[in-house]
Design goal:
The complex is a heterodimer of chains A (296) and B (362).
Chain A (H helix, E strand, L loop, with lengths): L2 H32 L6 H16 L4 H24 L7 H23 L17 E3 L2 E3 L1 H23 L1 H11 L1 H6 L4 H27 L5 H15 L5 H21 L5 H15 L9 H7 L1
Antiparallel strand pairs in A: 1-2
Chain B lengths: L1 H24 L5 H24 L7 H17 L9 H8 L3 E5 L5 E5 L1 H23 L4 H21 L15 E4 L2 E3 L6 H23 L2 H11 L1 H6 L4 H27 L9 H14 L4 H16 L7 H15 L10 H12 L9
Antiparallel strand pairs in B: 1-2, 3-4
The chains are: A mainly alpha (296), B mainly alpha (362).
Chain lengths: 296, 362
Amino acid sequence: MSLELVLQYLVAGLTYGTIYAVVGVGFNIIYNATGIINFAQGEFVMLGGMTAVTLHGLVPLPLAIAGAVAVTMVVGALIEVSFIRWLRKPSVLRMVVITIGISIVVREGALLLWGESVRALPYFTGNEVTSLAFAGVHVSPQVLWSLATCLAIVGFLWFFFQHTSVGRQMRACAANRDAAALCGIPTRNLVTLSFVLSAGIGALAGCVVSPITYTSYGIGSGLAIKGFTVAILGGLGNSMAAVGAGFLVGILEAASVSLLPAAYKDAVSVALLLAILFLRPSGIFGSSAVERLRAH
Amino acid sequence: MLSSRYARIALFGAAVVLVQVATQLGGKPFFLTQLTMSAYYTLVAVGLSLLMGYAGQISLGHAAFFAIGGYASGYLTTFDLSPLREEGLVALLGRAGLLVDRADLYGGQTLAVHPWAAFAVAIVLSLAIAWAIGVPVLKLKGHYLAMATLGFGTIVYSVVLGTARFGAADGLSSVPPFPLVAGLAVSGARADRVSNYYVAWGLVALGLMLLVNLVESRVGRALRAIHGAEDAAGSMGVDVARFKLKTFVLSAVLAAVGGSFLTHFNGGIGPGEAAVMKSVRYVAIVAVGGMGSLWGTVATSVALNFLSLRGYFGTLDDAVFGVVLLVVMLTSPDGILRLDPRVPVKALLARLRKPNRPEEAP
């Protein structure tokens, strides 16, 4: 394999890695707030992409994206309020099955609404064939858009959780919910907020990568598995590590395509997930999740 | 206790006969085809009911075991060995009576593994895979267990979908009938419709007898103890890991038996049988029937599978299963059939009486 080829795979891996990273971060936000793994996480990405494509028929691209993010955030809030909020101490098994049920309902709803066709937003700058050359590697401007968006999301979340009052309250809620409630923090509303945030960033990522990876009603469940792999790889609850893990999984997948039939691409990352779960459930970057693994 | 156990099986047998007679009298004998298929899916569901309800372990990958059984049977009974007829191993198998000659669609002669031998391979293969997967997977709990089994299902799905030898997206076809004994074969031929209905439901009855006896025995008590409190069960001397593993393997083998028989009945199998959505359907069936209620699972499985296979749900097929799953888990996680209608009413009344009760964290 020549150096250019390796770099080209690296770029392809980064593109997919962006979306895996954002889904993984979305998992973490909800997990930290509730202890729930939201199996419907991938559906937010799908909803964002599909809504933006539809809205783009009416309004300019930036507005369509903003609208799609807003719509998906509302859906996220509705999901939390109608399905999660009123459950009293649900078992993990029950929550897993409920979020799977939600993901099926959202997916089938999307199928009814949009049909089976595969859609995509237009490229933000240039078109399919526009490429910038870096050291002999061709990079689509859209890849730079996705990377920048991913970094912006991470930066925003960092600022939000470290330097805003609501963000600090959410961290308090994650650390000890009862203690947070005693301090007067509205823990229930923060759980809703965690779904809204998670839906919003998922939708934004879904819009940005849509021109490259395309969007259809069924992409959610695959993304959920990849996102979970990423979240586990980084250590559950650790958002910054999830970003690194996202890029790692994306690159590994891209490299696997050069060695194995493309149909096995999904099997590679899932095999990685199983390997981590069996060998090192705390993730390669973290160790704190071991206790949580035992606690749940 | 013993008598009521067998009385239920007898009642079940009577219901099976009654349904057959009813379809005959009602002029809908073709319903038997979907009822037969439902029976094979029911085998998966009752095994999963044991795993989820009694051992308390979720599996989002049971469709994979169904597919492993089906693909092993389908592949071995259709793979033509005749060019290798004189080769050492093939000749040896032929002399042992494990191979069978058959005329193919175009009049040529093919040589393939006998369905019984293929069935044995399917069972051993599913057992081995369930064992190998079960040892590490069952150490996990909660989300991790769910995701690991989901991941296993995804791998099996992408392997059967991506492998040309298994027919890729088309799956396997022209799978021959499975001659069980002289004059009785698992096949989709119209003449065999009634006998196949009884074969399928007889198999379910056998499986139920096994499971009912199991849950009423020492093993069943141990499993319930594990479900209740794993650590407590362990401290009482229950070998938690071994019981979980055995239940997992048993439910996987039941699924593989169903897959193998259905593949012979349908004359083929497609990758859709291994899809994650299929696994979720089995979970939905168990959830509606009531976790750990074998009879509830049987009733739900027949009803939902029959309606789905007859196409009553149309394009909403998956959506129906999703909504059912969601509604059941939200309102009555112990299963609709176990729901005591007085409980939610009482809870509502209590809440109305004390509107300012302090909220608990979810």
